[in-house]
Specification:
The chain is mainly α and 153 residues long. It contains seven helices and no strands. It has one domain (25-132). It has helices spanning 4-21, 24-54, 58-63, 66-77, 86-102, 107-114, 117-129. It binds fe (ii) ion (FE2). Fe (ii) ion is lined by residues 39, 43, 100.
């Protein structure tokens, strides 16, 4: 026998326990992972095809670090904020993202040169809209193209 009030109270204790385990680092970890997963996916969908179609070496420019980004992102997502490896994991991830971010100094100007202002505007809207489509977690074996599948922890 298990009284309903006990069941409800157990639920309340679970919620309190979850609440106590939430910290700011975990919240920002989720936010960071979501932003990065969205960003990589949106680039894959909208930016890479333009490079591939219009640049002779477009494919190698856009695909060379993708696997490493996904692997490091997964490792970061799987590391609890209380784990001593948490800060090293995010530093590790940012280290591999550094060259990707620096590409904005030459890849993005090259991209804008390939596009009309209307095309650029249209891609910008499509890019922003992918936020509702992308998975909340990344995975090294995640597909490179749609359909995107949520990867459970
Ligand atoms: Fe990027």
């Amino acid at each position: 026998m298990h009284a309903i009030s006990d069941t409800i109270k157990e639920d309340h204790r679970e919620l309190e326990a979850c609440y106590e385990k939430i910290d700011e680092k975990a919240i920002w970890q989720n936010q960071f992972a979501w932003e990065l997963a969205h960003h990589l996916c949106a680039e894959e969908l909208f930016i890479h095809p333009v490079f591939e179609k219009r640049l002779h070496n477009g494919k190698e420019i856009e695909h060379k670090d993708r696997g490493e980004h996904q692997t490091k992102l997964k490792k970061f997502q799987d590391t609890r904020s209380s784990n001593p490896s948490f800060i090293p994991a995010i530093h590790d991830l940012m280290k591999v993202l550094g060259p990707h971010i620096e590409e904005e100094n030459f890849a993005l100007p090259a991209l804008e040169q390939m596009l009309s202002p209307q095309e650029s505007d249209s891609m910008s809207h499509s890019f922003a809209r992918t936020k509702i489509l992308v998975p909340s977690r990344s995975h090294p074996s995640a597909p490179n193209n749609l359909p995107l599948i949520h990867q459970p922890r």
